[in-house]
Every structure is written in structure tokens, then in C-alpha cells.
Amino acid sequence: MGIRGKLPLSIMSIVFSSLAFFALLYTERISYSSFSSGGVFRFKPCAKRNAANKSVKDNRVAKNGSALDYAADDRFVFDPDECTVNNGKWVFNNSIKPLYTDTTCPYLDRQVSCVKNGKLDTSYQQWEWLPDDCILPRFDPITALKKIEGKRVMFVGDSLQRGQWQSFVCLVESVVPQRQKSMKRGRMHSVFKLKEYNATIEFYWAPFLVESNSDEHIIADPKQRILKVDSVEKHAKHWIGVDILVFNTYVWWMSGLKIKSLWGSFANGEEGYEELDASSSYTIGLKTWANWVDSNINPNKTRVFFTTMSPTHQRSADWGNEKGIKCFNETKPITKKRHWGTGSDKRIMSAVAGIVSRMKVPVTLLNITQLSEYRIDAHSSIYTEMGGKLLTDEQKEDPLRYADCIHWCLPGIPDTWNRIFYANLLYL
């Protein structure tokens, strides 16, 4: 297809990009019919490399004898108490074969089914994340199922968290006989059941975690949204009794506007709210969530995870492509170490790190932000849907307005997030 000439980064293009961001985010369906930078988080550093019992060999060899053809590897086997995964690099490995595709897994939304939607280049699936200090274990579906046997696993958050949930379901479902699995999609709550393992993998829609007037029936205009930043109970009652909780919240706070933040009843919402900047409102809301977790979660029975923010790639100038159109037509990751674009907010990262560090209940941070920052090539782009309909050929020829540089193709980046999640599950 012919793509209209690349546009300069002008005032008009910025306006179009902003409008497109709101269109992609705020016309989002709650689907049930179909389917850091190193200076922000202060984690415990990795142990010294002279710990011989931690040193391992990595015998993985790419078919072309590329960068994975190591004689030895002095990185450590992943240990959640010693190692982090946010520092590393993406290495192309053409021997990688995804555990599923968007045609073999029946549980994917069309929004993330890029190949099915016409994307021909699948090289974005061949990049492997290699942490500097640790070796991530390969995702093994049988082992993962055994770790969650007899348990409820629930992903809670927005559409990006829904993508992580769908990724996890697709990573394990192929090894389960058809009669031993079932999916029930709901407007707010969806449940994938594994009968043989007496387990469920669930998703609960709560884009802000705290209550808002745009939870179930989405209000397209962010100016009309009101967040009840002191209340989470409406959602949290559905989290009681879950064995493994995986939360996220970020992109819905990125309106670029003041956020109407309310204390008390929605009945007085028109008069009772205060307009706060996004990071201040986010901090208050996340503290409300943290207080609920500390008051209601028994850490001996429930493990809590929090997926850090998923970066957006709306501005190609961030990675030096001045003539580019958002993430459209990008085919390789960014190679600049610790690249940080305008689609990630360090104030939000700092708020998450500070609040979680003070919680009584241990929360494992799945720090996926920095590694995802590099992956400008793996978004849904024009191979997606909007408003419940696949993009038309005419819309695909206007990537400035229609390219989705928020959500990720599946299989893709969320599989790496789940590989990190899986590595942590092995220590449960």
C-alpha cells in the first residue's frame, strides 16, 4: 500500500498525535465478546560475580552462530533476592520460536493480533532480552501450571495488563487438553479455568485501580472523568481470596491534563473534586491501593506483584528519527543504553518505588519499563482495531492519526514481562 509522504514534526503533527493518543486510549472497549531508567528504583544489587556456585554456562546457540554463541556466561541464574532485570540488552535470536501465535491461541483480542491483521514482518518476535547480571529461565508451560496449581491468579489493571493476562493464558493453554480448559469473558472480570490443575488465570478491569466514574462505562472526554482517589473497595472486593495478584496502572493517568480528584461520594462530585496534576493524583490513588493491600492481604497466603509502567512511543524524535511518524515503520529496537522517552514519567516511577518500599505487605515489582522503552518496533501500530473495528486501508495510510503506539503485538513484549513473572513464580 502507498503511505502518504512522511510528515515533518510540526505543530500540526503534534496536534494530530495528541488527538490520536486520546482516540486510541479513550475509545477503548472493555472487550468481552472477542477477544527505568536505573536511577529511579533502588533495588538490592546483584551479588558479586566471584560467587562461583552462581556462575553458569549458557549453551544456547543461535542458528547463525550470533551473539548467543557463548563459550561461557558469568551471569547468575535469576534470583529475585539478588538480581534485577531492568538493565540489559535486546539480542536478535532467529532460533526463537514463540510458544503461540495469534492464530493458534484463540484467546487474543484483535487489538493485539498484528500478524492476523496483516503485519508481514515478524522479526519483532525474534529479539530476546538478556539482563546484564542474570539469566532468565525459559518459560516452561508445564512448570508454570504446576506452580499455580490449586491457585487463583489475577491480573488487575488496564488494557496493557489485559495484554499481559492474555499473554500468560496463551503461554500455558496449548499444553492443556481442550476439555480441561474454559474461558468466561466478562465486562469487568474474565476467568480462564484450568480444571485439571484446579486453577484460574483471571483479569479484572480497573484502569486506575481506585474507583472512577469511567470504570465500566468509559467516558471518552478525560475532562469529564472524576477519580475517587480515596476509595478502592468497589474493585478490591473482587481481589479477596486470590492467591497471586498482579497489578498495574499508568497509561490512563497520562491525559496531559489536570485530573479531577475526589474525596468522598460521587454524589457531590461536581462540587467536591480538586484538580490535581497527574503525578499528585496518581500518588494519592496508589497510596489508597497500598493501604488496602496492607490492611487486607495476608502475605502468607497471597503474593502481590506490580507491573511498572509500559512506555508509549508517540514521538519519534525521542529516539532521533526526526522524520518518523510515531512508532510506525520502526523495525528494530533502540540500542542507546538507558534510553528514556517522553512516554515514560519518572515522577510516576518514583511514586511507585517510594510507596511500595514503605508497604508492610511485600510487593514484587516487575520492572518492565526500561526494557520496554527500547522496543519501538513491537507496538500494534496500524495492524490493530479502533472502536471495535479493524483499521481500513485508508486509515492505515494515515499512521499519524491511527497508528497505535501504546499497545503491543502478541506474541511480543508482554511475553518477556511474563518470563520475568515466571522467573519469580519459580521461587514461590
From TrEMBL:
Pfam families: PC-Esterase, PMR5N. It is found in: Membrane. This is Transducin (Beta)-like 3. The chain crosses the membrane at residues 7-26. It comes from Castilleja foliolosa. It is a single-pass membrane protein. InterPro entries: TBL, TBL_C, TBL_N. GO terms for cellular component: membrane. Belongs to the PC-esterase family. TBL subfamily. Residues 82-134 form the Trichome birefringence-like N-terminal domain. Keywords: Membrane, Signal-anchor, Transmembrane, Transmembrane helix. Residues 136-423 form the Trichome birefringence-like C-terminal domain.
